[in-house]
């Protein structure tokens, strides 16, 4: 299988260089390259642990791929500052859909039509922006400290007093994705607003530990400092063999759409298109799922997490800046430490 994937990846790049495409409808289609590829490509990304794809692209094409990690909180400001100064170094941008939509409005993103991207669902294509996955959120627990009978079966189970001082989560007053996730629960999971508020207050009573983002959430669970957390299933893969598993609650799993696009004035435009096609290919998405634990939109491709294919995963809507401020302030009051 690995030899087959490598062969497909190599063929993809050869087609890019030669300006050919696969037959219509193929998921391994490639964008025509009018001139030779440049010797490098630069990406700014919010996603983590993507070194396998970066290395594979470089190995398959000979194009040096560079990645700069930007947090969601400073993504827009960093890119706009560089863009307005005429010094944006990124050829490709990867971030949450709302972030790229803001940058699109500011003229940063090109109207590139990706042959590979056009094979994705219609709802995943947004005028040069292509959705490739969902930043899914779940309840992650320590399998050595939580008995099978105690694993939550519903989100409401986090309000059980047995979890007091045993929960870790990103700060619901300031972390945008957590704010969106909590609002998503109101809109997709809880039948009434009262039930949702009861959940929030019950969770707050259990005194969860707050961290800045999702990235620090697995560490205290892995170490045993906390037993459970509102986190991301991908850490089960990236932190292996840590004793982590996800609580298979009966309700939907929610998450923010992940997206990718090419910058309008990409310093390396041909390499940027080649990288975009490579990223959206079956090969790269398979690596993202299998080696990084991400939930991707490629049909039939799932991360190696037990029973994850059984989960119903819903992409939550974009919250406006006003909504983020409003709900952040509301959650700060609810979760205020006494």
Task: Explain this structure.
The structure is a single chain. The chain is of the alpha/beta class. Helices cover 37% and strands 18% of the residues. It has 11 helices and 12 strands. Strands 1, 2, 3, 4, 5, 6, 7, 8, 9, 10, 11 and 12 form a 12-stranded mixed beta sheet that branches. Strand 4 and strand 5 form a beta hairpin. Helix 5 packs across helix 11. It is globular. It starts with a helix and ends with a helix. The N terminus is likely disordered.
Give unreliable regions as ranges: 1-33
Cα Rg: 21 Å
Helix content: 25-40%
Order of helices and strands: HEHEHEHEEEHHEHEHEEHHEEH
Tell me the strand percentage band. Answer: 15-25%
What's the β-strand tally? 12
Major sheet details: 12 strands, mixed
Oligomer: single chain
The overall average pLDDT, rounded, is: 89
The chain-level structural class is alpha/beta
Helix count equals 11
Distance between the termini: 56 Å
- Shape field: globular
């Amino acid at each position: 299988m690995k030899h087959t994937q490598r062969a497909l990846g190599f063929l993809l790049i050869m087609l890019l260089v030669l300006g050919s495409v696969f037959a219509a409808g193929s998921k391994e289609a490639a964008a025509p390259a009018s001139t030779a590829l440049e010797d490098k490509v630069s990406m700014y990304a919010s996603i983590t642990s993507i070194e396998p794809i970066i290395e594979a692209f470089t190995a398959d094409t000979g194009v040096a791929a560079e990645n700069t990690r930007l947090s969601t909180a400073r993504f827009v400001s960093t890119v706009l500052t560089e863009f307005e100064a005429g010094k944006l170094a990124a050829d490709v941008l990867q971030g949450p859909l709302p972030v790229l939509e803001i940058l699109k409005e500011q003229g940063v993103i090109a109207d590139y039509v990706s042959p590979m991207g056009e094979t994705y669902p219609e709802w995943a294509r947004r005028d040069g922006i292509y959705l490739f996955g969902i930043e899914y959120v779940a309840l992650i627990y320590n399998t050595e400290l939580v008995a099978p009978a105690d694993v939550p079966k519903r989100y409401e189970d986090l309000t059980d007093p047995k979890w007091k001082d045993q929960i870790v989560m990103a700060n619901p007053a300031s972390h945008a994705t957590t704010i969106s996730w909590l609002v998503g629960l109101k809109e997709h999971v809880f039948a009434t607003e009262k039930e949702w508020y009861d959940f929030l207050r019950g969770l707050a009573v259990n005194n969860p530990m707050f961290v800045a983002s999702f990235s620090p959430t697995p560490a205290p669970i892995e170490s045993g400092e906390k037993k459970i957390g509102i986190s991301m299933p991908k850490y089960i893969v990236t932190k292996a063999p840590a004793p982590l598993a996800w609580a298979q609650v009966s309700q939907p799993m929610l998450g923010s759409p992940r997206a990718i696009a090419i910058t309008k004035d990409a310093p390396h435009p041909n390499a940027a298109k080649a990288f975009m096609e490579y990223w959206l290919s079956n090969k790269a998405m398979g690596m993202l799922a299998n080696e990084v634990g991400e939930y991707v939109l490629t049909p039939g491709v799932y991360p190696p997490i037990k029973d994850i294919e059984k989960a119903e995963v819903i992409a939550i809507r974009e919250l406006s800046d006003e909504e983020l401020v409003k709900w952040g302030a509301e959650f700060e009051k609810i979760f205020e430490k006494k």
